[in-house]
TrEMBL record:
The keyword Nucleotide-binding does not apply. Residues 210-307 form the PpiC domain. Residues 30-53 are annotated as: Disordered. This is Parvulin-like PPIase. Residues 1-29 form the signal peptide. It comes from Alteripontixanthobacter maritimus. The gene is surA. It comes from the Bacteria. The keyword Secreted does not apply.
Length: 459
């Protein structure tokens, strides 16, 4: 494994969760007395309920009085449930979360748990219930991606960050149940016409060789009255992200766009598909760059550029690499001179290797470890390693990299399968993408209806 476990589990956990959508509110307005009509605000697109502008609140509202627990159609969501789910989010951040932001995060997590509960209940009412064996299988797959199939190690890690195996399994159950419900009751009724696919394919062909961008976004809606507060909140989110927070985790909890469920990932888009304000910013960004908040119609956006490529053009970074990672570690109390000597010995041993077949023998002589992976896509590696690796010949290594704390390592190239040149548009892929977009929109409406019909009691 090339990445360390704690950083990788945050990426894997981003595969699970529920969509975040603003909760729809319903109101039944009583008929006002004639004398009260003059105080009602006009029913406009901006004020559809006709609420007066000079609202006076009765009683005292103290957000610290109500505890963050709820009963959803008879299912109890406890404070412990919230604590353990919040821990999954905060574990993705290298910096502590301020107390004010923690309160907002807890309330957002509560909304997520309510949605998740509604999804599980609706699926169960349709006789769709993931079995414990299926949930455990998915849990084991996440463990294999992060801890080398050591489920006990992942369970211990979850406990160490204040979460639990049960919390993650509940999240897995919700995702499995909801996706199966959508596949059975919505997907079969989604139609994508041949004309739509042909039109999009022609546009892609005409754009061959031009740039497209894989963009992730956190969208926060605003009104003239709330813009200042929302902008301040966006600044706090950006600060946390720049201190090492996971963009996907923050997007899942704070973004009001439909892409929140997938960590804000818009996938690859062309500039023309973005609002003009975003396209101007994205065109000047490099992969890994964070920009925002950017004012767009209706709100603010925080944008993160994940990747960049040319349409219908083979990208060398799509090459599949066979790699050997050779690494050494240091004792916690090692001094600088000893560490430098150890690195010099390591570098000399690496330079003496005669190809990949000699790696294990040489590593054993200096107490180094070797990890082999035959299915690493170049673009999945850190940006600083991609080009050096793609410039290597089989049997060559990168320069040593790392630190005394994390260990020093090299990557040896033992094989490379370059991507095939793209000859045309993948019609099936286009059809699948259009269908997925429509399923996502229908799913949002489905969840909105579940919220409207739910019986929820807050404690």
């Amino acid at each position: 494994m090339i990445l360390n476990a704690p950083s990788r589990i945050c990426l894997a956990l981003a595969a699970f969760g529920t969509a975040l959508s603003p909760v729809a509110l319903s109101a039944q307005a009583a008929q006002p007395e004639p004398s009260a009509q003059n105080n009602q605000g006009p029913q406009t697109a901006q004020n559809p309920l006709g609420i007066p502008t000079d609202v006076a609140m009765f009683g005292k509202t103290d957000p610290n009085v109500r505890t963050a627990t709820a009963v959803v159609n008879g299912y109890v969501i406890t404070g412990t449930d919230i604590d353990q789910r919040v821990a999954l989010v905060t574990a993705a951040s290298d910096a502590p979360v301020p107390e004010a932001e923690m309160q907002r995060l807890r309330m957002q997590v509560l909304r997520n748990l309510i949605d998740e509960t509604l999804q599980i209940q609706e699926a169960a009412s349709q006789e769709i219930v993931p079995t414990p064996a299926e949930i455990n299988q998915t849990y084991a797959r996440v463990a294999s991606q992060n801890f080398g199939q050591d489920m006990a190690a992942m369970s211990a890690y979850l406990t160490s960050i204040g979460s639990s195996e049960a919390a993650l399994k509940r999240q897995i159950e919700g995702e499995l149940a909801w996706q199966r419900l959508l596949r059975r009751d919505i997907a079969p009724f989604i139609n994508v016409s041949e004309e739509e696919v042909t039109e999009l394919a022609n546009r892609l062909e005409a754009a061959r060789g031009t740039d497209e961008y894989r963009v992730a976004e956190i969208y926060l809606s605003t009104t003239p009255e709330t813009e200042a507060a929302v902008r301040e909140n966006a600044a706090r989110i950006i600060e946390q992200l720049r201190q090492g927070g996971s963009f996907a985790a923050y997007a899942r909890q704070f973004s009001e766009a439909s892409t929140a469920a997938v960590g804000g990932d818009l996938d690859f888009v062309r500039l023309a598909q973005l609002p003009s304000e975003l396209s101007t910013a994205v065109s000047q960004m490099q992969p890994g760059q964070l920009v925002g908040p950017i004012a767009i119609p209706g709100g603010l956006s925080i944008v993160y550029l994940l990747d960049k490529r040319q349409i219908l053009t083979a990208d060398p970074r799509d090459a599949l690499l066979s790699l050997k990672q050779i690494s050494i570690t240091f004792a916690p109390d090692v001094n600088e001179a000893t560490a430098a000597a150890r690195v010099e010995e390591f570098t000399g041993a690496i330079n003496s290797m005669r190809g990949c077949g000699d790696a294990e023998r040489v590593a054993a002589t200096i107490g180094a470890s070797v990890v082999t992976n035959d299915q690493i896509r170049a673009r999945s590696l850190p940006e600083t390693l991609q080009q050096p690796l793609l410039a290597l010949q089989v049997g060559q290594t990168t320069p040593p990299f790392g630190s005394v704390a994390d260990g020093v390592r090299v990557l040896m190239l033992c094989g490379r399968d370059d991507p095939e040149a793209t000859t045309g548009v993948d019609v099936e892929q286009i059809m699948d993408r259009l269908a997925e977009e429509r399923i996502g929109k229908r799913a949002q409406r489905y969840l909105r209806d579940l919220r409207n019909d739910a019986y929820i009691v807050y404690n």
